[in-house]
Amino acid sequence: MAKQLLGKEVNASYNERVKEMVSKVVAQGVTPTLGIIRVGEREDDLSYERGATKRCETLGVACEKFVLPEDVSEEELLRTIEEVNQNDKIHGVLLFRPLPKHLNEEKVIQTLDPKKDVDGITDGSLAAVFAGKNLGFPPCTPQGCMEILDHYGYDLTGKKVVVIGRSLVVGKPAAMMALKKNATVTICHTKTKDLAKNCQEADILIVAAGKAGVVDASYVRPGQVVIDVGIHMGDDGKLCGDVKYEEVEPVVEAITPVPGGCGSVTTSVLVGHVAEAAMRTLS
Known about the structure:
This protein is α/β, with parallel strands linked by helices. Helices cover about 40% and strands about 15% of the residues. It has helices spanning about 5-25, 45-60, 75-85, 105-110, 125-130, 140-150, 170-180, 195-200, 245-250, 265-280, and strands spanning about 5, 35-40, 60-70, 90-95, 160-165, 185-190, 205, 225-230, 230-235, 240, 255. A hairpin with a 5-residue loop joins strand 9 and strand 10. The longest helix has 21 residues, at about 5-25. The model has no long low-confidence stretch (mean pLDDT about 95).
């Protein structure tokens, strides 16, 4: 039976570090504040917003919301972002996507100040991840993967890490972050030949394919650590990941469950980024 890499255990220790940062900032007379910019009333946005707001309250981070109608003009949305950019009391910004189709999403994203980009969506933040610089922040989900590995004591130095997925949201930044930890990294995707063979060669397998159940027992071997980033609604109405858990879990050394794994760490990382952004303003 594989070891379960539980997000709640990672959160317990990570949140203590966040509280420590928050207390240092508050001692300097500053309240770390997250600005949430939401267009419309998408249920998945509202659900994530509730979780983020609750986590902010728990960790001592303030939250200010900027809610705009579904039919908001691009000019008004850009003006709102510029106002938030100029507001020194707001240290980090969460901009919900996807935006309505009448808005130029790329233009809107790049209007956000990378220093406040706590969700790692701007070119400035992503460039910093690739260059190893402290401008902006990495996307929360791949950092959550690294936090899980760190918490459970998996040193990536010299290890072979295989990432399935090449998106800028998870796959590519996860690969760069693993590389920074001295891993040897292979990025795989839907066009990769012998995908299962590549996965079997990994010490650490990070699955961000965006497709339910793409990894089964034929992709893994004993001794591996599997990080499943995916989350989907299965045909049975239950949440599932990119990995066929029931098949893979008996084979590997350790695995993140879905739900209860990576997703539960992401919100904590977001709030941690806000605290860190506030600290940077004091230096």
